[in-house]
Predict the structure of Acyltransferase.
Amino acid sequence: MIYQINSIRAIACLAVVIVHITAVFYFENKYFSKDIFEYINQIARFGTPIFCIITGFLFSNYFFNNFNINNFFKSRFEKILIPYLLWSLFYLALVYFFLRQNFPENILYSIIFGKSFYHLYFISIILQFCILFPILRKIKFKNDIITVFTFFIINLLCLIFFKESDFFILSESSFLGFWIFYFYFGLYFNKIIHFLQKLNLKLVISTLFIILLIMCLEIYLSEQIFGSRRVLNLFIVPPIFVILFWIFSKKQSKALNFIGYFSMGIYLIHPIVILILKRIIGIDLIHEKPLFFSIILLIFTLIITICLILIIVKFPFSKYLGEFKHEVRQFEKSYDNQQAEQISLMV
């Protein structure tokens, strides 16, 4: 299952990067200069929910089995909290010194709820899930479907009543209530994995076509731009995850597997790379040839970000910035295993 999850992680990572690249064409009066970029931007909004499902899936062993709570929190503190605080401070400094914008009025509030920069809210969501995890793992019904459905309803109600509210933290993008169902779907995915045996290519293509059609209709009929916090995602993201898992169970992609190993590093670093590339190319030139430069931005963002990760891991302080060394070691281990398999086939 490691390969499937790694490849899905790569897809989610690419979706997030694509959202942020196409946002270049989103103006202050809140419209896209080219319709195609509006569709691409909105369709790619499944990235963050997919990351939540993957997190739930990776936590499932803790969820259904006994574990040392002290070790759990110590690990989360070292692997998530410290890197999150450092990256939050880094991006606050970036906003002030590079973008020439003022510091937020309440810096502590901005850091807690992932408002230091536009992508950090996801890490805040993960931290909330980790903090509440010992409590959440006790909320189980005898029927697994009822448990997952209960959190689907909770998530749905949060989106309906709190998303557009001004009720303090409940309207923040990082509020766990907007994402809790995806975590639970991931936690219980192993329970429904046998369902994959019933899938076939015809059903997969039909389902993807219907999902794409629904998303395009929503974009066409709606006069507003949606984020990842939308009701439709509750219905379409789980099938997308299941289909991706089925696809990568049948077929492997070395490119996606490669990106998957560096996904968290890419997630944390890519905004500054996009920002610098925009300054180098020039926003006017980008708007003259939007499709060409969108592809250029995507390719170079991935290449530069991965190169930066490989440079960062050479320094001792890298352990405080995230699991970059772990990502590189996992990739090297996977590469060595592939080489060993190829040699064994040749002998």
User: Anything to note?
Assistant: The two ends are 28 Å apart (CA to CA). Residues 76 and 213 are 40 Å apart (CA to CA). The chain is about 70% helix and 0% strand.
